[in-house]
Design a protein that fits this description.
4 helices; 30% strand; Rossmann fold; 142 residues; 7-stranded mixed beta sheet; alpha/beta; 7 strands
Length: 142
């Protein structure tokens, strides 16, 4: 799998969002990072670039947020508190990933084996100078 990287800070968040949109082959994007590194902040910027008029907020408590864009829907999930496949199924997860919409998933770590759809993985690392490095990897499921 080929990976691409970019470094960004809060002042050029729009460039990071453009990088992800321009380099993501798939409409399902998984975001992995430590707590507080800026997954939701980056997703807000991506949603803005896609053209959502909705207020993008963290789905930590509702687990799933739905936004409208000009051309389709955006599903924004936070799987941090989802404990098992039954809970994931009750969210409608398996139906959602079959749709042709944007799907942004924070904290996918516990369920990586169930992502049976091609997806882009975004890993965000906080650097010593407070900037972030994104590693973007395309994951094709064979």
């Amino acid at each position: 799998m080929k990976s691409e990287k970019i470094n960004y800070d809060i002042n050029n968040l729009d460039l990071a969002a453009e990088f992800i949109l321009n380099n993501s082959v798939y409409d399902m994007i998984l975001f992995k990072a430590e707590l507080g590194v800026g997954k939701t902040t980056l997703i807000k910027e991506i949603c803005k670039k896609i053209g959502t008029i909705d207020n993008v907020v963290s789905p930590t408590f509702p687990i799933l947020n739905l936004y409208k864009s000009k051309n389709n829907l955006i599903y924004h999930m936070d799987l941090y508190r989802v404990e098992n496949l039954k809970d994931l199924n009750e969210l409608g997860f398996f139906d959602i990933i079959e749709q042709k919409n944007w799907i942004f998933i924070e904290w996918p770590d516990n369920f990586e084996k169930v992502f049976n759809k091609n997806h882009t993985l975004i890993e965000i690392k906080l650097e010593n100078d407070n900037s972030r490095t994104i590693t973007l990897t395309q994951n094709e499921i064979i």
